[in-house]
Design brief:
Order of helices and strands: EEHHHHHHEEEEEHEEEEHHH
Number of strands: 11
Largest sheet: 6 strands, mixed
Structural class: alpha+beta
Number of helices: 10
Radius of gyration: 30 Å
Shape: elongated
Length: 349
């Protein structure tokens, strides 16, 4: 279970785990492993499903539908309305049930006296039976444990640590969705983070992290982990081996960094006619003085003034300015007028 809305884990306002770094100091936000894991997911099917749930919810809740026209100017309010509509349409039923199933499975391995509710007895028994058939045992002290990757400042909570007949430990994560077929990439990334974690981490009572405890991460298999797939109400459980690869973490982090810098891929091609006349005047002056020099330094991919009768755009002018500055300095040409695009100085006093 790794849902910050349903557990007492101490987090920051963005839902990140609050962790005291190895070197000490104040707690800092560690991004959730599930957030990193889902970075490269294709969410088109999920988005379409969520949209259908909103539509169903609005049909079930005419009171929500009636308020749409009053809040169309507020994205925040519209988002809240859509969340309520999706909930009314049944979007959170499986998630909430999955959270309860996680708690039941954990308790069944950590509390010898626990008896699951009759409606889910077959589900819980199926998990125990499947582990036994595959020769796995669950370490009761290693259920729902927070682990941290200090290098990348990632934290997460793995569901279980299991051991095979030879005593080899594996990270195991319980999934209760209708299918695991299309989630291999995110599962592999998530469990790679857990298996390669630097330490186990237990948050104490103190908000400043002074009671928090770090423990060495037990040795676990870093080649593969186990997905435990249980559909609530089915009474059937399946195990899937997941191939682990630390490169998946690097890939997810690179995608996140690239997204943060997405605006840098766009350069406005604005036309400044005054600036275009200004740079062409500088070029003409240089040509009159030393045509050979500017021809030699002119980039092959940049049209010359004769090749481009239309105005130069600002990125092109920026490149030409660099060339002109070098040549004018070399030839000791007098400074011309100031770049029209340069910010104006404020008058003093």
């Amino acid at each position: 279970m790794d849902e910050f809305t349903t557990d007492p884990t101490r987090r920051d306002r963005w839902g990140r785990y609050l962790v005291v770094p190895p070197e000490g100091g104040k707690p800092v936000g560690y991004t959730r492993a599930t957030t990193i894991a889902k970075t490269a997911d294709d969410t088109s099917a999920l988005t379409a499903w969520k949209s259908r749930m909103v539509a169903v919810g609005l049909s079930e809740r005419p009171d929500l539908y009636a308020t749409i026209s009053d809040i169309t100017d507020s994205k925040t309010e519209l988002n809240r309305l859509c969340e309520k509509a999706a909930e009314a349409g049944g979007a959170t039923i499986r998630r909430d049930l999955g959270t309860h199933i996680h708690a039941m499975v954990e308790k069944s391995f950590t509390d010898p006296d626990y008896t699951p509710p009759p409606a889910h007895t077959n589900d819980i028994n199926a998990v125990h039976r499947t582990f036994k058939d595959h020769g796995y045992t669950v370490n009761a002290d290693m259920c729902e444990r927070i682990c941290v990757d200090d290098q990348h400042r990632i934290a997460g909570t793995f569901d279980m640590m299991i051991s095979d007949r030879d005593g080899q430990n594996y990270i195991a994560d319980l999934k209760t969705g209708s299918s695991v077929k299309y989630s291999g990439l995110s599962f592999a990334t998530q469990l790679t983070i857990y298996a390669n974690a630097d330490a186990l981490y237990t948050q104490g009572v103190a908000a400043d992290g002074s009671d928090d405890i770090r423990e060495p991460m037990p040795p676990v298999n870093t080649d593969h982990a186990i997905i435990v797939h249980l559909q609530p109400g089915s009474g059937q459980c399946e195990l899937h081996a997941v191939t682990l690869n630390p490169a998946l973490i690097d890939m997810a982090l690179q995608i996140r960094e690239t997204r943060r810098n997405a605006a840098g891929f766009l350069t406005p091609l604005a036309i400044n006619h005054e600036r275009n006349r200004w740079i062409r005047s500088r070029i003409a002056t240089i040509v009159e003085t030393n045509r050979e020099m500017i021809v030699a330094m002119w980039p092959a991919d940049l049209p010359t003034p004769k090749q481009q009768p239309a105005p130069y755009n600002n990125p092109q002018i920026d490149r030409i300015v660099t060339i002109c500055d070098l040549i004018e300095t070399e030839l000791q040409l007098p400074f011309g007028t100031k770049d029209p695009a340069a910010p104006r100085r404020r008058k003093q006093g």
